[in-house]
Amino acid sequence: MLLVDLNEKRIIPDGELKHRLAGRQPYAKWIKENQLDLEKLPEPPRAYATEHETVLQRQRAFGYTDEDIRMLMMPMAVAGEEAIGSMGTDTPLACLSDRPQPLFNYFKQLFAQVTNPPIDPIREELVMSLTSYIGNERNILDETSQQCHTLKLKQPILTNRDLEKLRRVSQGDFLACTLPILYRVSGGGSELERALAGLCRRASLSIKNGYSVLILSDRGVDEESAPIPQLAGVHRGAQSSHPRRNAHAGRADHRIGRAS
């Protein structure tokens, strides 16, 4: 990195430039004093156990296919790595299918794109990370210690125990609440619409009451209760909370904790 400074009439080299930027504010101190780490939060007294007897029921409810299990999930479970496949996809568009499709299938890219650097946090850890942060971005033009008040997640996939830690967080600006997103199957589309509107109202009320982390929980799916698609819940919830966009929605329980 080089900077041509027309006032000083010189080229500022990489080392000097980065040293100047890094020393502008006590960033390390701010992070140490304000940032929370999910791994260091208190251990929850209990966590939901894996429900092996309902795995097939939940796979059907969330649109898993035999191909998903055989070609995608199995390699991850057996070898701890993602399956290797050809670039691109010739999968038909969801809107052309006569079969019910998960809402997520309607939102995907149908082209191959090479990334540089590779998206590989294991073999390319110097340039790629799965670390995620939850928190209010505040004004990105300011440099204050409060901008470091974030919750650090080592990876975006949470186990049931991780989720319980997040559910119980109550430090600084972070206060979490859980919103159920189930609706009665017998009510059909009208019941789904009513439940989604109710979810938006509860989300807005939770934000007004000071909650900053909203966990959407689809736990409890059975033959009478189906989950609102998280994609719809998060999108509508963000719209309904427009006056204060500081709520962070997590796709909770079965969707966010598949690995457990």
Number of helical elements: 7
Shape: globular
| N- and C-termini, Cα separation | 43 Å
The averaged pLDDT comes out at 84
Supply the helix-strand structural class: alpha/beta
- SSE ordering: EEHHEHHEEHEEEHEEHE
Q: Stretches where pLDDT falls below 50 for ≥5 residues?
A: 242-260
The largest beta-sheet arranges its strands as 6-7-9-11
Instruction: Summarize the biggest pleated sheet.
Output: 4 strands, mixed
Radius of gyration, Cα only, in angstroms? 22 Å
Q: Percent range for helical residues?
A: 25-40%
Strand content: 5-15%
State the total count of DSSP E strands: 11
Outline of this structure?
The protein is of the alpha/beta class and 260 residues long. It has helices at residues 14-22, 27-34, 55-61, 66-79, 160-167, 188-208, 230-240, and strands at residues 3-5, 10-12, 36-37, 132-134, 151-153, 170-171, 174-180, 182-184, 213-217, 225-227, 248-251.
